[in-house]
Each structure stands twice: as C-alpha cells, then as structure tokens.
Design a protein that fits this description.
Strand order of the largest sheet: 6-7-5-8-9-10
Distance between the termini: 83 Å
CATH class of the largest domain: Alpha Beta
Number of strands: 13
Helix content: 40-55%
Order of helices and strands: HEHHEHEHEHHHEHEEHHEHEHEHEHEEH
Radius of gyration: 27 Å
Length: 491
C-alpha cells in the first residue's frame, strides 16, 4: 500500500481489536448459610435498601417488579420484610454482566467467562483448587492475557492464583482504579487516582514476590540491613504524603473558588447517581455543555460546573460528578473527597437513576451508601428517573402523570430526547431557597432603559402598561433583582 494511503475502516477495527488485551472473567456466587459473612458494607447496603423500601412504600411506584435473588459476595444481600416491597438485587449473573461492562470501559476484549458457586470462599484461592485448574485451561484455550475477578482478592490469593494460571490476575477494585486512571484528564483527577492506587498497593507489597523480602546492598538506595519491601513501603509512603499535600492545595483552591461563588446568591445543584445512569447526558441537556456522554462506565471523572437559568430567571450552578458503583473502593471515596466536596456544599442534590434498569432500586441503595459516607444523606434531594424513552410509551406516560398528580419527589425524564426537562427545571426552581422570588408591581420611568432591560432579562413579566412617561409592570423576580428596583415598587 502506498505511503499516505488511509487504511480501510475494517482494517483499522481489526488492528484495534488485535491491540486489545484479552480478558477472561471470573465471577463467584457465595451462598452463605446462617450469619452473613459480608461485613459492615452489607449492613449499610441493607439499611439503604430499607430506606428505599420505605420511600417505595410511601407512594413512589417502582419502575419494574421482581423477586429478590441471591447476591454474590460484597453485593449486600438481604431479605426484605413482609411489610416492605421487594427490591431486586444484583445476582451473580448480573454482577458478572456489570464486570463485562467494566472490562470494556478499561479497553479489554472479553474472550470468556465462568461463574463459580460455593458455600464459602476458599481462603487460598477464593474459588478452590479444582475450579482454578479448570479456569486455567479455559483461559489458555482462548489465549487470554489476564483474569478479571468480580471480587476483591488478598495479596496471597492473587499470588496463589497467578502461580496456577500463569497470567496476570486483577480484582474488581484494581480494575475500577485502572478505568479511573484511563479517564482522568485534569491534574486534579490524576492526583486523586494516583493516591487511590498507592493506598491500594501499599498493603499488598508483601505479596509481590520473594525478591521484595530480600536484603539489598545498593549504595545510596536503602539503609544497611533494610529489605526491599521496607524500602518500597517507605518510598510509597513518601509519595502518598506528597500527593496528599498537592491535593490539599487543590482543596484550598477549590475552597477559595467556592467562597467567591457563595458570596453571590447563586445556588449549586449536584448531579449524583450510579455510573452510566445518564448524568452527563442530562447535564448537557440542561446546560448545553459538551461534557463527554458515553455508555462506558466512569466516562465522567473530572468535575464540571456550568450555569443554568431557571424559569424564574434565577441562575444556578450545576455540577456533574463521578458516578458511583456497587462496592466502590473506600480508597476512591477518600481520594476523590476534593471532587465530592461539591456534593457536600450543594444546595440541592439531583439523584439520577436509570428508569429502564430492573436493578435501579438496588443501584440507588449503593448510591445511598456513598452519600451517607459523605454525610449528605439529609440534604434536600430530588429524584430524577432518566431514560424513560427506553420504557413502554404507555408505562412512561402513566409514571410521569402519576408523579405529577401525587406531587411526589420524583421527576421522570429522558435526557436523550429532552422529555420532561421543563418539568424538572420547574421542580428545581421550587426547591431552591437561595435568592428567593417575590411578585410585585413596579412603576419604572421610561428613561430608565438599563433597569427595564435588566428586568426583561432577569425577571418574569406578567403585565406591562405605559402611563404618564412610565412603564407599569407586574413582575416576579429574585431578591437580588428586587434590591435594584426597590425605589420603583408600587405599594
């Protein structure tokens, strides 16, 4: 082919696929008996589900119905009581499907998968020696480059598995961290990801090979008698302190910017929700911004803030945040605290859910866990059920009309098609308390052209009449506008 000739699209696609890492997925469904072994996270998840059940029982209609099914380890299983509606939970197959989506977001090509069901996790290999041999053969038959486990692995488990399969082994947390690293664009995002990766790596150094525990004699590299493991721990701890200091500078700058914003009566509205619920698409539809909206998980990582004009002509700031996910690593929540501070300082939280997902209630329960960790669970909140365009048309219309008639704290929208956005803006307008709106009569001299133009731009005008060289108006305007026209108020 001559130089400068562009390759056909099919050839480009084939080359791209050849460069992708081939991943073999491993899921595990642990059917524990008696007392749950899932720990505190499960208790939090169940508490969040109970809260969601209470909301559902108070009048919020579920989008879809289904029986609760068994949940894999770390997902938070629990039986709902007889007086609460059943909330579908992640089962092992759906958890594996989510891992498949995560692998695609990380740039991997899934070439095979297997699901192991056990009564309890194997402490050495998580899935058992026999199943591990089977997985090793299956992965080799499809030329897999790595194994992705839908579960967190200890350092010893990861090392034991690698000895048998002779492939790289990555657990769920490491996969999520890798996706975050791929999507971080700003310096702040990259620092937050690096901090989370270092915090994940530090307790796992002991399992990274025999050479990490041998004494070294490199002049100027480590102290006498210090092992390589101790040296690496010291280097990582030093790097962690350096990154934390840089993030502290980021927090200080953000605090200064926030202080300047808060000096004016402008409310902030934060979008939160499960990853891939359509937050960025909704953000773009409301703000006319050009934030990347992608079906890949965690496409949005760096926070974005844009202005939105409400029906009352008040202006608010809307922030798009990183999506949450089931079993979100605690190191990520800690590392991204600088970004998530926008949620903590918001006047109103828009909780965006995927109305077309059978698991939207359980996904909402996972979001509740993170909101509770951020201590914002009691903030004013508006539930936004997105993607109603993917529902049956009659079902979507019924849900939207019921929510409007009942006055529930839920709005049904389609960010992709623009359905229900006017209703959403009106609800936001009604819930924002900053710069309150009032309705008055004004008598403004016609020569006050700037004032009349300002009213035209920043107030809702209900009537207008011209009399004796003045303009008589009935307007509804925010307090910040009223202060500038108080001299012309007709009492």
């Amino acid at each position: 082919m001559p130089l400068g000739t562009e390759l056909p699209r099919s050839t480009k696609t084939r080359i791209k696929e050849d460069l992708q890492e081939r991943a073999f997925l491993v899921g595990i469904d642990v059917r524990t008996r008696g007392r749950s072994a899932r720990g505190a996270v499960t208790a939090q998840a169940q508490a969040a589900r109970d809260a969601a059940s209470a909301v559902a029982g108070a009048g919020t209609k579920p989008v879809s119905a289904g029986l609760s099914s068994g949940s894999s380890v770390g997902q938070g299983a629990g039986k709902s009581s007889t007086n609460k509606p059943s909330i579908p939970e992640f089962d092992a197959e759906e958890s594996l499907a989510e891992l498949r989506t995560l692998a695609g977001s990380a740039g991997a090509k899934v070439v095979g998968e297997i699901l192991q069901r056990r009564d309890r996790p194997d402490p050495a290999t998580l899935i058992g020696a026999g199943k591990l041999e089977e997985i090793a053969g299956a992965a080799a038959s499809v030329n897999a480059d790595l194994l992705l486990f839908d579960h967190d692995l200890s350092a010893s488990q990861q090392r034991n598995i690698e000895k048998v399969v002779h492939l790289r082994v990555i657990d769920r947390t490491q996969l999520i961290l890798d996706i975050f690293a791929r999507h971080a664009r700003t310096r702040e995002g990259q620092l937050q990801v690096e901090l989370a990766q270092l915090q994940y790596l530090l307790p796992r150094l002991a399992g990274r090979g025999v050479e990490m525990s041998q004494l070294g004699g490199g002049i100027g590299t480590r102290g006498p008698g210090e092992t390589q493991l101790e040296t690496d721990r010291r280097k990582i701890a030093r790097r962690v302190r350096h990154v934390e200091q840089q993030l502290e500078n980021v927090r200080r700058i953000r605090a200064q910017q926030r202080q300047r914003r808060e000096s004016a009566p402008v409310a902030t509205v934060a979008l939160v929700g499960y990853t891939n619920a359509g937050k960025s698409t909704l953000f773009n539809a409301l703000t006319r911004a050009a934030v990347l909206a992608s079906p890949r998980m965690f496409a949005t990582l760096d926070p974005t803030i844009r202005g939105v004009v409400l029906p009352s002509k008040r202006k608010i700031l809307m922030s798009d945040t990183v999506g949450f996910i089931r079993s979100l690593p605690h190191t990520l929540v800690s590392a991204f605290r600088a970004t998530l501070e926008e949620v903590q300082r918001a006047s109103l939280i828009l909780h965006v859910s995927d109305a077309s997902s059978r698991l939207s209630a359980d996904q909402d329960a996972q979001v509740e866990i993170v909101l509770k960790e951020l201590e914002v669970e009691k903030k004013p909140r508006l539930r936004v059920m997105n993607k109603v365009d993917l529902l049956d048309e009659e079902v979507a219309e019924t849900l939207m009309n019921d929510a409007l008639r009942d006055g529930s704290n839920t709005v049904y929208v389609s960010a992709a098609e623009g359905t229900g956005l006017d209703r959403l803006l009106a609800r936001i307008d009604a819930m924002i308390e900053e710069d309150p709106v009032s309705r008055v009569h004004l008598r403004v001299p016609q020569k006050e052209g700037k004032t009349l133009a300002m009213l035209e731009a920043k107030a809702r005008i209900y009537s207008r009449a011209y009399k004796d060289g003045a303009v008589v108006l009935e307007v509804e305007a925010p307090e910040s506008v009223m202060r500038r026209v108080r001299d012309w108020v007709v009492k």
